[in-house]
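Office hours follow-up: a student asked to see two folded examples consecutively, so here they are.
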Amino acid sequence: MKQKEKLLEVKDLRISFKTQYGILKAIRGVSFNLYKGETLAIVGESGSGKSVTSKAIMGLLAGNSILEDGSIMYQGRDILQIPEKMMHEIRGNKISMIFQDPMSSLNPIMRVGDQIAEALKFKLKMPKDMAKKRAIELMELVGIPDAEKRYRQFPFQFSGGMRQRIVISIALANNAEILICDEPTTALDVTIQGQILELIKELKKERNLSVIFITHDLGVVANMADRIAVMYAGKIVEIGTAEEVFYNPQHPYTWALLASMPNLATSEKLDAIDGTPPNMIFPPKGDAFAVRNKYALEIDFEEEPPYFKVSDTHYAATWLLHPDAPKVTPPDAVLRLKKERGRVFK
């Protein structure tokens, strides 16, 4: 079997932030690899550390951040340690990012075509005429009709979905090999959301892109992720292939996320996750999810669980996988997903 090419290796990443209330432990030992041509989804509630992880990869951490430990290896270099000038050459050229709100990424008083062309001229040193031609081609590539005419329009003249397409075209202007999508469809309605997801899938396939897709909604990535990492309180609590995480989930937090997914085939009531995420200025003892976990064991409140191996590609940090742990039955929604295997994945 041919070994997959590893593009990015995040190892034991630990990032905190100085706040007026104390030191906030945002990332607490995150490790994962990203392989050539794959989509890795990072899923979790707000505050779980998803966006901080992506900004660390882009070298865009806030000034009050503290790199406690860890490395992010790309092309043989730790991008957490390289000079900003070198990171500037990687950012946009090799690793690009799409943010949640396209209006925050676009200059409201600059024509959209010029914004795409600017990226080409600045990063690739492309002549003005060539940059304009390529910008129009990129607009057509991401599905913007009448691209030549719309080149001269301003962001406010585009719908939310079309603005997000513009942002995607800017991200792809420099032939990046890694695309980070940070909640790119959250502000869009369901129909447009589906179109943007399909566009990212198509572009990934055409360009053999590696994608890190960040979301709070497992359902969004059901048909596009190759692997899924579930984050909670600054840690990855479960990681595996998309099918493993959907059809053989092991962590109670993953169960809770799956149980909160809407199912249009039934009129089942959605299961909400009781409680709120912990205050990471004062990290809880033991498993951070224990207080909200109806399946918690006594040890969960005392000792943080290690990763238990489920398969060669599937790991979960839960004491329920310990050989001496009592057997528990997952929620009905999780059991139903196992029975209806094939409904989620097409």
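And the second, which I mentioned at the end of office hours:
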Amino acid sequence: MVVAAVWWLAQPRASSPTLPGYIYGGFSLSEEYARYYRKPLADDALLAKFAEADRLCSRGDYRGAVALLEAISAVVPLPVVYNDLGVLYAELKDKSRAINAFREALARDLGYQPVRANLARLKGQIDPNIAEPVSQEVEPNDTVLLANVIPLGQPVEGEIAQGDDSDFFRFTTPPAPRDLMEVDVMNKSKTLVPMATFYDSETRLTDWRATASGPGAPLRYEFSPEPNSVMSTRIRGFANSAGGYILTVSAKHAFDAHEPNDQIMSTTRIGVGETVKANIMDARDTDFYSFIAPASGKVKIEIKNQSTTLVPQLSTFTPDMRASGFGPDVRKQGADLTHEIEVTPNLVYFIQVWPALDSSGAYELTVR
């Protein structure tokens, strides 16, 4: 299977007439996948579909290429896929779908140069401003299927015009590693009590929700969905309240510099005697580390709490990645943890730092 994937990537760009603005070649898909998902694209069938879309496009079968790319976008919603869809729809004179495709790409990367270049090239056909992710709500957006596409970090003005009004907005979470997201609803009225609920990529209602404390109060809510996932939020008024607001959905960059290391197969290697600064971002976070055992045959693992909230826990693993024990059962917020284990010199051992009692916070780790 790997050989097949390499073969697809090694194929030359289409020798037939090329469509301006269309990005040919499987490397672009694989490169973006690795950047957004932090792992290589190993799906040969997906690469084959992307290559087939190239061939159909080169032969002028734009509708066939669109069908393949739409199917690909449902699996890997990457800017390169939406860029190519936008170019194809523009060639097919389907202006609304071209705008939507370019907007989807910009919602994931507001400065995505291929789309910016295409919008400049097509400005006689498509108004570049229309393709921008919205900065003010566009009605109708009162169902999840009509959600306005918005980028992260950009304020969007909206208004709950009457008690039964709802505004839906769709956004894409950042690439891996998983991050904390913040929804900030700045209240512009003295009457609105904003409420926010969230829907996953399948438009299913999630358990994430929040309500402001009262009329005129702002709403701020943190949650942590999976990276590179499509989410929607519904903004409405509690108890039929109404009024204007400004919505901003942003990533907090709350993960530490060693992420992603939340699996034993992707550990952070540390040296004996080295102190590592890290954090447990939320109750779902966990950090794996590995080290080479010194000649002494014994090591001390120290976790020094750098917060008043974290309740640290420790698990240890043998060189063959089997669980070998736990550190002391800490139950106090802000407490430190120390644990000793016997080791065989020059072998690699693994440790896991994780939170108890749904806690989070910063810590320092040292293996001595």
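Two things to take away from it. Confidence is low (pLDDT under 50) at residues 1-16. The first helix runs from residue 2 to 10.
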